[in-house]
Amino acid sequence: MIHQPTPRRTSLTSVALLEDLAASQTSARPFERVEDWLESTYPVDREESRSDSFLQVYLEPIDPRTTQSAPPEMPPNMPPPSSYGGKKGYAATPVTSSRSSQAGPVDSPARASSVSRSGSLVENPLYRETNLAENNIYLRSSRHELPREISNLLVSVQKERGSPVPCPTTINKNYDLYAMEEEASEAQVEAFVRDHVVPSSSREDTIQRSDRIAMIKSTVPSTHPKHRLSTPVPDMLYGYNRSTGFTREQRTQISTSRNKLVANNEGLLCPFFALEFKGDGPSSNGSATCINIAEQLGKELQQCKRQEVSRLDNESFSIAMNGTEARLFVSWREDRLIHMQKVNSFILQRPEEFLEFRKWVRNIIDWGRDDRLRKIQSALDALIEEGRMAASKSRPPPAGPGPSDAVKRQRSN
Question: Where does the DUF7924 domain start and stop, copy by copy (predicted)?
Answer without folding.
Answer: 182-380
